[in-house]
Amino acid sequence: MSTLPALPALPSIVNDARAQRYGLTVAQLRDLETQHAGRCALCRETARLYVDHSHATGDVRGLLCCRCNSGLGLFRDNADTLTAAAKYVTRPEQPYESIRSHTNDLSGEG
Asked: What's the pTM?
């Protein structure tokens, strides 16, 4: 059985400007990067990471891939909406016709 070639190392996110932007020292940002081991805190995929922070407090929460960081932003960091989305995507699937007939029942049509 052959082994897959090693993935090239992703560039470090650590630099003075990025650390300063989030109120961290370079050492703190490097430590955060080491803790994450190159993986997104949410999906655990290996990807280029971005500093995730609370827009309300400015506190750094961790490192996320672009997709997860954007997703949180699109949900406006709202825990209730994120919880509702998680419930939505894990509910049993319903065929389109079933949903349509249920909607018609509610509206009094057909």
From this structure: 0.73
Secondary structure of residue 27 in the 3-state scheme: helix
**Residue 35 to residue 16: CA distance in whole angstroms:** 19
pLDDT one-digit tens code per residue, 87-108: 999 988 877 776 666 555 555 6
- In the CATH scheme, what is the code of domain 16-107? 3.40.1800.10
The DSSP bridge partners found for residue 63 are 51
Chain centroid, CA 46 distance in Å = 13
How many CA atoms, within 13 angstroms, populate the side-chain half-sphere of residue 52? 21
User: H helices within 1-110, ranges in order?
Assistant: 16-21, 26-36, 66-74, 79-90, 96-107
The ranges assigned to domains in the chain are 16-107
Give one DSSP letter per residue of 74-92, joined into a string.
Answer: HTTT-HHHHHHHHHHHHSP
